[in-house]
Amino acid sequence: MSSEGKGKTVVVGLSGGVDSSVAALLLKQQGWNVVGLFMKNWEDDDDDEYCSSRQDLIDVMSVADTIGIDVEVVNFAKEYRERVFSIFLKEYQAGRTPNPDVLCNSEIKFKAFLDHALQMGAEKIATGHYAGVREFNGRFQLLKAEDGTKDQSYFLHRLNQAQLSKTLFPLADIYKRDVRKMAEDAGLHVAVKKDSTGICFIGERPFKEFLMRYLPPKKGEIRCLDDERVLGEHDGLTYHTLGQRKGLQIGGVKGGKGADTGEHEAWFVARKDMARNILYVVQGHGHPALLSDELRADQLSWISGEAPHTHWVYGAKTRYRQADAPCEIERVDADECLIRFASPQWAVTPGQSVVVYESRVCLGGGIII
User: Fold this and answer.
1) Catalytic-labelled residue, pool 51, 104, 224, 337
2) Which is higher by pLDDT, 46 or 99?
3) Catalytic residue list contains 200
């Protein structure tokens, strides 16, 4: 048994899921004085069927009892609304598609949570994220997880040196299947609990209906980008994102390449004209309007504190489940960069994050504009 944490306190963010539970278990086995922290960050519809915070807290307490650690419950609902949810709504209102998990990590899990843990006297914080951190040449690096199918470094790319210096990722080198086996062997009932895939701290729910509660509908035309034909009506540009295929309700309209053959190729959202409230669509997954050789990004955040070299070949993701795409950073200044790709990227979406890698090392990234 490792004793690297002997006599030191680490506060582990416990969500009620198997990953954070096993992270706490591993740290306890390594000799750390482990304290669990359960964060409650959403209160708007706490009785709603989609909000699982009550059951999650019950699961956290059960896990803590089995492992033998104390748990503190803290409410960051005010911070979440101000630092994450308000920005989330503003971005959607402006026609962009934000990533709340990225904001949530930088503003809540590794800011509000970290500050609270340090006030509790902790030396470190830990989470159940699949990512790694190491010190290299006097700086801290964020690494991809060993389990590439679960790697979450994309969502953590806005972390800085101060945050990473205080962070442990116990699951960095462990595969998900082994995490569940560890939980089962330790008698943790969450070993078979389903992974959460909903909005950070808000849960899994019908997304369009959720947005409508905060951003009212504003109907407009759906038009074909190629010939300006009116194909239907949308409820609001806010509820649509580039590359979207489902929910357009224009599937029976022929056009484009399918016009001569009678084929009904799928329609995809290609552009949003916010000034005229028009949703433009194209037919076919490979339509040129859905492909981009380059992108611009602002709100840059580089983990080392310095921008990467220009004209070196890196890998970049413009969405979470994407393979690293070879690219060059053509221009970098304090506020904006231009990234050129070796091959066209599909449905590059304003508001989403572009995250840059050098092999296993996550360098940081920015918001696509």
Assistant:
1) 104
2) 99
3) yes
- Cβ within 8 Å of residue 223, ≥6 positions away: 229, 230, 231, 278, 279, 280, 281
Give the chain's domain count: 3
Residue with tokens 């590794």: 110
322 with 345, same domain: the answer is: yes
Residue 33 and residue 188: Cα distance in Å, rounded?
A: 19
Pair (82, 169) in one structural domain:
yes
CA angle 28, 80, 209 (to 5 degrees): 115
Residues 296-331: pLDDT tens digits? 999 999 999 999 999 899 999 999 999 999 999 998
Q: State the pTM of this model.
A: 0.91
Choose, from 51, 200, 337, 362, the residue flagged as catalytic.
Answer: 200
Last residue of a domain, one of 187, 207, 227: 207
Rounded distance, CA 43 to CA 33, Å? 31
Q: In the Cβ-directed half-sphere of 14, how many Cα atoms lie within 13 Å?
A: 32
Of all helices (H) and strands (E), which one includes residue 135? Answer: strand 131-136
Rounded-to-integer distance, Cα 195 and Cα 204, Å: 11
The Cα–Cα gap between 18 and 186 comes to 11
278 forms bridges with which residues in the sheet?
A: 273
- Based on the fold, state whether residues 158 and 16 are members of the same structural domain: yes
> For residue 120, how many other CB atoms are within 10 A of its CB?
14
Dump the DSSP string for 7-28. Answer: T-EEEEE--SSHHHHHHHHHHH
> Listing from the earlier edge strand, what are the strands of the sheet with 220-224?
230-234, 220-224, 278-283, 267-273
Residue 246 belongs to domain spanning: 218-285
CA gap 270, 224 in Å, rounded: 9
Q: Does the annotation mark 224 as catalytic? A: no
In angstroms, rounded to a whole number, what is the distance separating the alpha carbons of residues 271 and 264?
Answer: 21
Closest to 130 (Cα-Cα) out of 147, 142, 114, 115: 147
